[in-house]
Amino acid sequence: MYAQMVTSEGKAPGEDLSPEEQAFQDRIDAGERIEPRDWMPEGYRKTLVRQIGQHAHSEIVGQLPEGNWITRAPTLERKAILIAKVQDEAGHGLYLYSAAETLGVSRDELLEKLHTGRMKYSSIFNYPTLNWADIGAVGWLVDGAAIMNQVPLQRTSYGPYARAMVRICKEESFHQRQGYSIMMKMAQGTAAQKAMAQDALDRFWYPSLMMFGPSDAESVHSAQNMAWKIKINTNDELRQKFVDQTVPQAEFLGLTVPDETLAWNDEKGGYDFAEPDWEEFFEVLRGNGPCNEERLGARVAAWEEGAWFRDGLSAYADKAEARRNAQVAAE
Amino acid sequence: MKKQWPLWEIFIRGQHGMNHRHVGSLHAPDAEMAINHARDVYTRRKEGVSIWAVRSTDITASAPSEKGPLFDPAETKVYRHPTFFDIPDDVGHM
Amino acid sequence: MALDEELQADPLFAGQSGAAFEWLCRIGDSTLILGHRVSEWCGHAPVLEEDIALANTALDLIGHTQMWLGLAAEVEGQGRSADDLAYRRDAMAFRNIKLVELPKGDMGLTVMRGFLFDAFHFELLTRLTASKSPRVAEIAAKALKEVSYHLERSSDLVVRLGDGSAESHRRMQAALDHLWPYCGEMFWGDAVDDAMDAADIAPHPAELRDAWDAAVQDVLGEATLQRPETRLDVHLGGKTGRHTEHLGYVLAEMQFLPRAYPDASW
Ligand SMILES: [Fe+2]
Ligand SMILES: [Fe+2]
């Protein structure tokens, strides 16, 4: 997902909770929201910072693969739609950094960690967008997968995170639909367009499945995060849901999901499907994906080359304040 | 690390005469720029809104409450709405 | 019913439609190419708030382009669309001013160019709201709302960065010096403009100069920036299709898909 494999800082199973911790857990179990000034276990705070920060980083790094096609969008309307979409992702990053900041960490600190590789972003954004249908595929599959995860997170236990998710989910539906609308045009278009659409699906299918992360049904981290309601479903549940939703959509497009083992399983009421290559996934997380260097490089360059701009505006604000104070003093 | 732009809490009153509502926060070097940023980030420049920007550090909060504000940013571009895209019924829910 | 009558009544569609087409392309191409340059910042701006603001500006400019080039295509009456004009003309048929096709440079250049253009754009649209052509007046009124905000924002940023740190001051001055000789083209006119002026469709661009000068003077003063002594009208030609080398690359990128797949619809 946008936050993958978030390590939990919770207690080991079986370890006793202090009375404070128990009261905290009771509030969560009762469906209450935790707000910034409420008492919370340090582990809960740390885990959330990690998860929300990773999620925020994914939004802004996620601007890049799609931004890659803004100047090449094939009609004025598609160009406008794509700019609006990529802009929304910047907004999502902003909402999420704000949510993280309520936990006592600043946006600049989080960015610093991203830039120095001490915090991650989703593996999916390390894949290239090579043809125009990729912009369709990203909206359809990547935003589609994100929605699977973000809709339940609207009920997450931490108030500011849940509220950010509500606003984000409202915008996401437009994202997925604009992607699918590109896919429809491409799949129903000329032979060359259809080939691009199939190529995009071929390349984005497995990376999209990886977004949910490896199976975590047995994971201790996952169990703690679910108890804290900062993770709502297991990775496998979401992946299954995603496949079940997406396969008919691919069929409607007349495209072939690149999985020969894909078959409907009546018994479980869902599709059986092939696992992605988890070796590849871990390599991408390690920094060896096709675009890790470009993506992080672009973010670092934007930040460093923009330093004079941010500092210049700070300098003006300081001067203006000094001038106001001097004026007040003179009166 | 150089000085970070301070954090501002943004409150917006929509066109329908409701009270200002907290919509979120953002960073800006001073109050005037916080207002401009709020316009760009939280209203997409819809006419007739009134914006308040308050330094986050200037807010005194009562004991925690569980009710948080939700807000729909106004949308001026039709394609931001999911219904702009005709998705055939056969595709199912999207 | 009224469509024909309306067209008859609109001087844009009477007589000098060749000039009207040219004139509309000069505006529409300028908003298109500037929108393109601004959109290059998407995902690369110095801070998230600015990323979002720049995207808004790009969106507005692309929206204006759709209106202006849409109208140009209508006036031309050859069955072309705004997209055809944007994506199927070569550089020599583009009529944008050179100022907007220069590479985006650093944020100093982007902000300064935005301001120099906004100050002109604002004045132009203000005058166009009183155009004898109802179609032109209508588009101008819509665009003016957005451009008023562009100008407010870019003026503010020029002042802040000009009067900010030593480094931001230096960059803003450098951007101004670089862009200044391209600004004269905004006020340059030929027979096309005479025809528009005579039909009360649009003012001659030279008439916008004083208001622009005043606005620029004000803002540069407050920004503690030095108004260049150099000539304003060194780099002309964009409006008649003689561009810088940069435009060809912009178009190569922008037009790639429709050119490579001429039969496709997107
Ligand atoms: Fe997003
Ligand atoms: Fe999205």
Describe the fold and architecture:
Chain A has helices at residues 19-29, 42-61, 63-67, 76-101, 107-115, 132-153, 159-187, 191-210, 220-227, 235-253, 278-288, 292-305, 307-330, and strands at 263-265, 270-272. Chain A contains 13 helices and 2 strands, in the order ααααααααααββααα. With 331 residues, chain A is mainly alpha-helical. The radius of gyration of chain A is 22 Å and the shape is globular. With 94 residues, chain B is an alpha+beta fold. Chain B has a domain at 1-59: Ubiquitin-like (UB roll), CATH 3.10.20.520. Chain B is 14% helix and 21% strand. The longest helix of chain B has 13 residues, at 31-43. Chain C is mainly alpha-helical. Chain C has one domain: Up-down Bundle (Ferritin), CATH 1.20.1260.10. Helices cover 65% and strands 0% of the residues of chain C. The longest helix of chain C is centred in the first third of the chain and has 29 residues, at 48-76. Chain C is globular, with a radius of gyration of 18 Å. Chains in contact: A-B, A-C, B-C. Chains A and B meet through helix 4, helix 5, helix 7, helix 10 and helix 13 of A and strand 2 of B. The complex binds fe (ii) ion (FE2) (2 copies).
Write the layout of secondary structure elements.
The complex is a heterotrimer of chains A (331), B (94) and C (266).
Chain A: H1 19-29, H2 42-61, H3 63-67, H4 76-101, H5 107-115, H6 132-153, H7 159-187, H8 191-210, H9 220-227, H10 235-253, E1 263-265, E2 270-272, H11 278-288, H12 292-305, H13 307-330
Antiparallel strand pairs in A: 1-2
Chain B: E1 7-13, E2 21-27, H1 31-43, E3 50-55
Antiparallel strand pairs in B: 1-2, 1-3
Chain C: H1 2-9, H2 17-39, H3 48-76, H4 82-88, H5 107-128, H6 134-162, H7 166-183, H8 191-198, H9 209-222, H10 245-254, H11 256-260
Helix pairs in contact in C: 2-3, 2-8, 3-4, 3-6, 5-6, 5-7, 5-9, 6-9
Bound molecules: fe (ii) ion (2 copies).
Could you report the average pLDDT of chain A, rounded to the nearest whole number? Answer: 95
The secondary-structure element order of chain C is HHHHHHHHHHH
State the secondary-structure class of chain C. mainly alpha
Contiguous runs where pLDDT drops below 50 for at least 5 residues of chain C: none
Largest sheet of chain A: 2 strands, antiparallel
CATH architecture of chain C: Up-down Bundle
- The first-to-last residue Cα distance of chain C is 33 Å
How many beta-strand elements of chain C? 0
What structural category arises from helix and sheet content of chain A? mainly alpha
Report the largest inter-chain contact: A-C, 49 and 52 residues
- CATH class descriptor name of chain C: Mainly Alpha
Strand-residue proportion of chain A: under 5%
Shape category of chain C: globular
| Count of extended strands of chain A | 2
Oligomeric form of this entry?
heterotrimer
Radius of gyration of chain C: 18 Å
